[in-house]
Design goal:
By secondary structure, this protein is of the alpha/beta class. The chain has a domain of 168 residues. It has a 7-stranded mixed sheet with strand order 1-7-6-2-5-3-4, with helices on both faces. Helix 2 crosses helix 3, helix 5 runs parallel beside helix 6 and helix 6 packs across helix 8.
């Protein structure tokens, strides 16, 4: 969820202005009842089977009616950073890469989803304990040095797609310490109905997605950035690259640099 669920006054805990009011109304091109039932059955079948490698996640995307197109390619041992609209972002990106994602600690306790997260080597961060952040950065550094890519959503929370939040800088320190390339990625959805924002629930979000005829998402892998600058400059360069690809306006934080 993208609610401000950390302790009051912690400025590093991200908060998005997007709410469920940002989501569009019922779409004209809805899937039929039988297709929706088949999709729900397919989703639970794959989750219960515990097959969480990229081919299985590509199949999960197809079961959900998500059509993924990939432009560009990933390397190894990279810090992959992308804009964040939905829990679906994780499924899509792990279906086309073999990265270890970073997620908030609450995800580990979600039914079925938490099991997936643990099985694929997710690095969890406790957003309610800012003192734990250096340990998280150290873990990310270790994973990158071991040659495995790490997937991070630097906005720290989901946005509706009509706008983006600023990229937080902490994870970029791991790339600098590991000497790992930063790989910006732009996710472009064909509909904002795929967004997971405000007081939306996972059940409602899945229902909305399975109810659509299909959801198109384009994964644009942008040129890599060498870790030869400060984390502030590295974060702003990555954010600027994603914003430019998506046609987003520059954030206030970027404008100050």
């Amino acid at each position: 969820m993208n609610r401000h669920d950390g302790p009051a006054g912690l400025g590093w805990v991200p908060e998005s202005p997007c709410t469920t009011g940002c989501l569009p109304g019922p779409a004209a091109g809805r899937a039929g009842a039988l297709r929706r039932v088949a999709r729900w059955a397919g989703v639970f079948g794959l989750l219960l089977a515990g097959a969480f490698h990229p081919p299985a996640l590509r199949r999960l995307a197809r079961v959900l009616g998500v059509r993924v197109s990939l432009r560009g390619s990933f390397g190894q041992g990279e810090l992959i950073v992308a804009n964040h609209m939905s829990w679906l972002d994780v499924v899509v990106l792990l279906a086309v890469s073999e990265a270890a994602p970073l997620a908030k600690s609450e995800v580990s306790g979600w039914p079925l989803v938490g099991r997936i997260a643990r099985r694929i080597g997710t690095v969890f961060v406790d957003r309610g304990r800012p003192r734990a952040l250096p340990d998280t950065v150290a873990t990310l550094t270790w994973v990158l040095r071991a040659g495995r890519s790490v997937l991070v959503f630097p906005e720290g929370t989901t946005w509706c797609g009509a706008q983006m939040g600023p990229f937080r800088r902490a994870a970029f320190q791991a790339a600098i310490e590991a000497g790992a390339r930063v790989r910006p990625v732009a996710l472009r959805y064909g509909t904002r109905a795929a967004s997971f924002v405000g007081d939306d629930t996972l059940f409602a979000s899945i229902g909305r997605i399975t109810g659509m005829r299909h959801v198109d998402v384009e994964v644009i892998v942008l040129p890599g950035l060498e870790p030869d600058r400060s984390r502030r400059r590295l974060a702003s360069a990555a954010e600027n690259a994603v914003r430019a690809e998506l046609g987003q306006h520059q954030s206030k934080e970027l404008a100050r640099l």
